[in-house]
User: Which sequence fits this backbone?
């Protein structure tokens, strides 16, 4: 994202915060004395301080001096970390998943597939956003799914502060299915899938000429060709849903033959079998540590330590729910996913990076999100314990340097129905 | 408690085998009476996709018999005398159930465990009834059959002493550095410094945690197995709203790789249910996750009653409404249940009359009514022979369901999913109905919109029977983590919940809801040796089940294999582990 669009987004956020009474604006905040997980070269700093000025990390270290008038937050005994980044989510794309309710995460029909754009559907007021945020998740990569097409559409990275203007970047990534679901949509066979994918990229590269000439696309309609065009020219990430080792090898070959394209894998249940090739091709993988069952025939070699094996081989690993398990309501579980990856052998630091800095890097935001270092956007969470532990919870969640509310519709329901024993002093 | 008729008259024992059967049936019946619970469910994954997939992945009374007096006091203070009185009554009824269980416990009915021998079916109905008579004889008939009886056998194992772990006993107590002794498959001791019998296997559990095996009250392993393809979508007979005649166990594929993953998560028993497409989904079955089992019968939990799976709400109305058939609405759901139970009353009456005529011994032998498998299941519910596991999300719909149960005189064992159970926790406690719950699933449909993270602890705090369930091949692998989330959220809401109490949500309460609490669910003396040794505090995300004992035999050892391969997984070349 460009600095300019970022600063205008910040201006917008700042302006809106004036209208809000629920959230405190503080130009300078010192978070003092916590166990600071920087995710950067400084590693973990015990009894460290984090200084935030104007929505950015100003300094991280020991015994920092707060500017005059700064708010000081005592974090002794707490963990202080970058905000969590949900790498695979539909949060804000529906209020309710089923029940025949409107669901902007699901696209069908032939009007638009690649052109479907999550930014246009994202609702920062969706109930699930606060529910997710109060568990420490500050950003999410959201994308629609198309039920019939290879390309599912444009994904976006959003802030979970619940304010208008939460979409971070234009056309952050394009989603494409190159496994069983993609094959089903390409005539039922992988044999047809890859030629269709290659033809689609050709259509997009030759947009708009072949459409204006009346020739039309071999695979794509004009709308989708236009949407894919930048990605086909290497401007933007192609996020590939793919699981089987042989399919992943196919992708690696395709990537080598098309070096200008930028790929990341979502799913990759059998990626551990292709780990060295992925590391060499610098293709990162968003994996699901719960995915240890052969629940699809393209996941027969699924195993719980997939993330650990990939990491050991030098692959950049992010953690998120597998394709098919992504939803709008439970992105908060990404912390539990990461904890389970640790139990399955992934080093803690790598697991935490896999839900913070790694997704930020995959989605092109590595210079502004995911680490507690000078100049980074101040998404900061203070926890009452190890954030990967299922019994830990945030005590303060900051997005863009602003403290956010820890109230959600769920906490309101909780308070309404709390038993007498819970209300007793 | 108005159970259906036919129970008490049914058990004039005339033989030792029958006496044994009778005591067991009494135990099971008692188990069914006060607080059993489960409700039905599974989203209709066979039918729909997105919501379905979401639900598939990603559900009473108090639980702790020993502290119920203290709880009664607290509740008396908090909620008034009337409620405390009800709790005392409930506690007393439980005590009766336990006493009967002890007297007629499964171990006392050894012959009943012999495949092919004098067997006792799930409800205690004697087998070997007069030929040509499907429901027993004039002395007492039951509507469950002993066909498809369990052929599960306990694996012979030496005495086992698990030494020096922190023991959570499943009834609400925790013992630092205690030993657990298992002899002949049964818990034979719990305390510090126990002696190892000759030839005992001694496990050093110092620094580790020891708990009862986890019981999942809501699973679709085997009926929606991995891999999930058209051929394996066997959990919903979504062809008509009442399919009470189908049995989940007849869809279970024993080679589902999910069973080994469940054991690796510390699970020693699970209840496999049909899905929730139908008002009456069919019968559920309690299984042991026996690795290497060739048949479902080899997995069937001995003497566990079957269940009837019922479903409220959106699923049946959507499935049939979309076909322009009934039920298309919530009101038709209720009418559908009532009409079918009314028919079942008639069915039962016809058989009662037949047996009465048989007993009179008139000159002409009476003609038995036609057998109807759908009605048979519902009549068995009216007779208290099956637990009732009812998929129901919303508070108002659960209370409506309880009215149906009251009208027809049966006990609901548990509501499943019940994301709004916290709104009616007092009513569920009063009616002795368990709530089998997720820790935090919500929002995937409107009836799940009001989910809160404190559902489980709020049900528990009301003196109810809270259960952590999975409804998921993923969730069943880490139910301990779900309990941890619920416990910590309850604590943050101001409740005082020990981890020992939270464990009752994982073993004793589900055992109660399934009618197997006399046999398992806690480390009390005489119960089955269903024990897990955890690498660390199981309320930590980092803890793993190191060893899992089932009926006293080592069923899983993580050091040997992380995930033992089922036949399906064996030899898949691309699945070879490095």
Assistant:
């Amino acid at each position: 994202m460009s600095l300019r669009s970022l600063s205008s987004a910040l201006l917008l956020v700042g302006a809106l915060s004036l209208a809000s009474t629920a959230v405190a604006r503080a130009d300078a905040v010192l978070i003092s004395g916590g166990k600071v997980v920087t995710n950067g070269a400084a590693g973990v700093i015990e009894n460290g301080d984090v200084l935030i000025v104007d929505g950015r990390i100003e300094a991280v270290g020991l015994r920092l001096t707060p500017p005059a008038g700064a708010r000081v937050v005592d974090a002794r005994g707490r963990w202080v970390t970058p905000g969590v980044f949900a790498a695979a989510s539909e949060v804000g794309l529906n209020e309710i998943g089923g029940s025949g309710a409107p669901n902007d995460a699901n696209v069908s029909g032939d009007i638009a597939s690649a052109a479907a754009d999550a930014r246009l559907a994202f609702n920062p007021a969706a109930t699930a956003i606060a529910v997710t945020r109060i568990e420490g998740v500050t950003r999410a990569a959201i994308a629609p799914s198309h039920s019939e097409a290879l390309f599912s559409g444009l994904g976006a990275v959003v802030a979970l502060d619940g304010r208008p203007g939460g979409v971070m970047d234009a056309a952050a990534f394009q989603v494409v299915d190159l496994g069983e679901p993609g094959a089903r949509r390409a005539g039922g066979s992988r044999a047809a899938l890859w030629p269709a994918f290659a033809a689609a990229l050709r259509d997009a590269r030759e947009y708009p000429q072949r459409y204006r000439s009346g020739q039309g696309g071999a695979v794509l309609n004009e709308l989708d060709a236009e949407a894919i065009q930048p990605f086909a020219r290497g401007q933007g990430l192609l996020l590939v849903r793919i699981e089987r080792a042989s399919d992943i090898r196919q992708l690696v070959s395709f990537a080598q033959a098309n070096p200008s394209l930028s790929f990341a894998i979502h799913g990759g249940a059998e990626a551990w079998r292709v780990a060295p090739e992925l590391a060499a091709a610098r293709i990162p993988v968003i994996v699901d540590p719960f995915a240890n069952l052969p629940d699809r025939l393209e996941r027969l070699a699924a195993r719980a330590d997939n993330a650990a094996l990939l990491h050991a081989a030098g692959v950049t690993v992010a953690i998120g729910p597998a394709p098919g398990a992504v939803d709008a309501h439970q992105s908060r579980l990404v912390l539990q996913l990461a904890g389970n990856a640790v139990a399955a052998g992934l080093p803690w630091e790598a697991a935490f990076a896999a839900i913070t800095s790694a997704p930020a890097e995959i989605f092109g935001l590595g210079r502004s999100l995911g680490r507690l270092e000078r100049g980074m956007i101040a998404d900061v969470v203070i926890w009452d314990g190890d954030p990967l532990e299922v019994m830990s919870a945030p005590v303060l969640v900051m997005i863009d340097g602003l403290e956010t509310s820890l109230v959600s519709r769920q906490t309101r329901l909780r308070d309404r129905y709390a038993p007498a024993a819970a209300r007793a002093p | 408690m108005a159970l259906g008729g036919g129970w008490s008259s049914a058990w004039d024992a005339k033989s030792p085998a029958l006496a044994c059967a009778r005591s067991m049936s009494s135990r099971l019946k008692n188990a069914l009476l006060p607080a059993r619970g489960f409700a039905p469910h599974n989203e209709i994954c066979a039918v729909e996709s997105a919501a379905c997939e979401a639900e598939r992945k990603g559900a009473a009374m108090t639980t702790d018999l020993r502290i119920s007096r203290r709880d009664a006091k607290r509740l008396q203070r908090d909620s008034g005398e009337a409620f405390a009185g009800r709790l005392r009554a409930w506690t007393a009824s439980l005590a009766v159930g336990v006493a009967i269980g002890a007297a007629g416990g499964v171990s006392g009915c050894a012959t009943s465990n012999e495949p092919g021998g004098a067997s006792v079916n799930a409800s205690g109905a004697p087998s070997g009834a007069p030929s040509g008579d499907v429901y027993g004889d004039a002395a007492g008939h039951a509507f469950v059959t002993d066909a498809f009886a369990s052929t599960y056998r306990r694996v012979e194992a030496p005495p086992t002493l698990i030494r020096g772990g922190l023991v959570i006993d499943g009834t609400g107590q925790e013992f630092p550095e205690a030993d657990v002794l298992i002899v002949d498959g049964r818990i034979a001791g719990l305390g510090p410094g126990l002696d190892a019998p000759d030839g005992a296997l001694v496990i050093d559990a110092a620094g580790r945690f020891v708990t009862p095996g986890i019981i999942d009250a809501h699973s679709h392993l085997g009926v929606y197995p991995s891999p999930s393809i058209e051929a394996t979508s066997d959990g919903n007979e979504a062809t008509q709203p009442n399919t009470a005649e189908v049995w989940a166990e007849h869809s279970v594929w024993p080679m589902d790789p999910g069973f080994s993953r469940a054991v690796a998560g510390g699970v020693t028993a699970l209840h496999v249910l049909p899905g929730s497409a139908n008002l009456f989904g069919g019968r559920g079955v309690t299984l042991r996750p026996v690795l290497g089992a060739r048949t479902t019968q080899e997995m069937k939990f001995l003497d566990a009653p079957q269940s009837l799976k019922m479903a409220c709400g959106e699923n049946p109305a959507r499935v049939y409404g979309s076909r322009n058939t009934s039920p298309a609405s919530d009101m038709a759901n209720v009418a559908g249940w009532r009409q079918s139970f009314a028919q079942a009353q008639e069915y039962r009456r016809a058989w009662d009359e037949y047996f009465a005529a048989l007993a009179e011994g008139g000159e002409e032998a009476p003609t038995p009514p036609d057998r109807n498998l759908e009605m048979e299941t519902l009549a068995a519910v009216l007779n208290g022979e099956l637990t009732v596991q009812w998929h129901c999300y919303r508070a108002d719909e659960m209370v409506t369901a309880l009215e149906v149960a009251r009208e027809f005189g049966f006990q609901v064992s548990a509501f499943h999913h019940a994301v709004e159970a916290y709104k009616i926790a007092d009513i569920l406690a009063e009616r002795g109905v368990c709530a089998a719950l997720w820790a935090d699933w919500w929002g995937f449909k409107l009836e799940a919109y009001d989910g809160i993270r404190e559902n489980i602890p709020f049900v528990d705090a009301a003196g109810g029977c809270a259960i952590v369930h999975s409804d998921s091949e993923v969730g069943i692998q880490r139910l301990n983590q779900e309990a941890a989330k619920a416990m910590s959220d309850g604590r943050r809401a101001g409740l005082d919940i020990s981890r020992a109490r939270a464990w009752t949500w994982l073993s004793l309460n589900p055992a109660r809801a399934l009618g197997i609490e006399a046999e398992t669910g806690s480390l009390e003396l005489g119960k089955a040796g269903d024990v897990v040794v955890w690498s660390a505090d199981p309320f930590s995300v980092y803890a793993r089940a190191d060893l899992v004992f089932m009926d006293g035999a080592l069923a899983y050892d993580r050091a040997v294999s992380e995930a033992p391969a089922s036949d399906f997984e064996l030899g898949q070349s691309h699945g070879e582990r490095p």
Observations:
- Residues 8-563 of chain B form a domain with the TIM Barrel fold (CATH 3.20.20.140).
- Chain B touches chain A through 71 residues (CB under 8 Å).
- Residues 1-133 of chain B have pLDDT under 50 and may be disordered.
